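Bug #2210: token dump truncated for Glutathione S-transferase?
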Amino acid sequence: MAGPNEVDRTIHSHTTGAAAETAAAHQSEKPLKLYAGWFCPFVQRTWITLNEKNIDYQYIEINPYHKDPDFLKLNPRGLVPTLGVPVPAPVTSANANGDSNDDVTNNASAKKERKLKPIYESIVIAEYLDEHYSDTTKHGPRLLPSGDDSLAAYERARCRLWIDHISSRIVPAFYRFIQHTPEKDGQYTIDDAREELLKQMKVFFQEVIDLDGEREEMGQASGPWFLGKRFSLVDVTLIPWALRLFLIDHYKPSGVGIPEEGKGGEDEEVWRRWRGWFGKVRERDSVMSTMSAREKYIEVYQRYAEDKTGSQVGQATRGGKSMP
Ligand SMILES: N[C@@H](CCC(=O)N[C@@H](CS)C(=O)NCC(=O)O)C(=O)O
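Reproduced locally. Full output below:
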């Protein structure tokens, strides 16, 4: 089976720009370890979550296309992000006091009992971090609505629904667009690819507008995010691809095609909402501190733009299969 190839294995090896400073500040040994690739939008979801929640971690840069055996032992899917999580050993009479919250314990014997366990899949990781680091005085507001009442359960489900929309509609459309080459015209044209991406983005931002309306009716404050004033996991899920749309402008004829201000016709309201959201994304520290230099993204995404990558995402897109 085809797999990562030379263009994947020889990509630039480390963070640059703002992301380099953030990575440098997280080099020392820590119980929580983020195995990352600087270029990877799925990793960026995790990285933003860690920053947003003020969680201490160690940043470990790897090239996931090398399929290092030690890395495959942690994550048999061979994908970044992978999180190494210090998990306490099951409680026995010998360590009955060894509580398990790595946030609070300084107990040496409890530390000794811990094992590094892997968690992977960017959304699973984000939910784990939000749930485990739940002390809002240390880690800020929850990224998914919390609470046991039926309203909170509904709001959580609604967030997960739109997280699913982003992951199963917007993200695949992004790759279909950027991996389009003229040879594919028989299967789908660049205009088809553009139409699909814009359609799925419009569906999402129309939902945000509808939620704004609900909030207004309830007298709640308006704000730029999916949950109004409150930044959430839904925003985190979309941000990395929003920040990579410029690559489609760079590589593809006629670009992404999001209309300029005042030129959106009947969709003007939706695109105004997008602009309001995206403007705030670019002001958010937890986000911008994970961005490498623009030219490095241009370089690393050339293998997608020319459809030469053997990455799992690239192969899935080429083969019309679901994303890894
Ligand atoms: N579903 C995974 C996707 C992660 C993913 O595809 N990561 C890419 C880098 S952006 C990777 O590790 N690719 C290695 C490969 O394709 O072999 C997630 O959400 O974490």
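Output looks complete on our side. The radius of gyration is 21 Å. Marking as cannot-reproduce; reopen if the truncation happens again.
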